[in-house]
Amino acid sequence: MGQLRRLHRKIERKEAEKKIWEDEEATIPDGHLALPVGNVVSAPVKGDFLSIPLFAWTGRRVRVNTPLVMVTVLLINSIEDPQPRGTLQVELPIFKTTELATLAALERYGWDGRIWPLDPGWPDADAVEANNLKDLIEQAGLRSTFTFPPSEQGISAQAVKVSRAKGAFLMPPLPDPTSDPDPKKLERLRELYQNPTMLL
Questions:
Q1: Bridge partners of 91?
Q2: Integer Cα distance of 71 and 53 in angstroms
Q3: Helices 183-194 and 99-108, interaxial angle, to 10°?
Q4: Cα–Cα nearest to 58, from 23, 17, 92
Q5: Phi and psi torsions of 6, nearest 5°
């Protein structure tokens, strides 16, 4: 009976993976394993949005064991119209060719090099902010998250195109960094993706 269940689960996994590439008009490009993958985790939504970081963690891609940075973002129409439209989970695979671009993307979202609550700092001074973030990461089954504190200009946002309202979809490659990486943040990022259980 146990073997039958395991076989059934294996078939279900293969079917789920197959569905990722179901879109008949899409073709899988060369090097697609290095591309970000998006997945709408709210009610279905599709189109061009601004994305605001909620929380992030590290993990490993199933079977191939590729290190990943996972970022969950809130989708809004614009800064002037910040009404939430949906929630997107973005999987950023880490390879030699993508590591610095991933760090740059995290920095554009405002990552300050810390994970919370392991590292003290924002949002500790704001009880409401701290409780909200704690609730978010607990709901996601995490112990800690990359921190994205607001700057003097407010919360950092990046444009994102959601090309599939439901299910996983390939996203364009991250842009190359425009400056040299912060050595401390790069060292911390490597520590985190090499030891993903630190956040779980």
A1: 37, 70
A2: 7
A3: 110
A4: 92
A5: -60, -40
Q: Which of 165, 186, 189, 169 is nearest to 75 (CA)?
A: 165
Single pTM value for the model: 0.83
Cβ atoms of residues 41 and 89 within 8 Å: yes
Q: Residue 115 forms beta bridges with which residues?
A: 146
Which residues in 15-35 are b (16+ Cβ under 10 Å) and which e?
Answer: eeeeeeeeeeeeeeeeeeebb
Q: Say which DSSP state 176 is in.
A: P
pLDDT tens digits, 20-48: 434 433 455 567 889 999 999 999 999 99
Give the number of residues written for the chain.
200
As given in the structure block, the two tokens for residue 199 are: 């956040």
**Backbone torsions φ then ψ of 59, nearest 5 degrees:** -160, -165
DSSP 99: H
Tokens of 107: 């920095």
CB 82 within 8 A of CB 102: no
CA 41 from chain centre, in angstroms, equals 12
Beta-carbon count within 10 A of 65 CB: 8
Residue type, 159: A
pLDDT tens digits, 62-71:
888 899 999 9
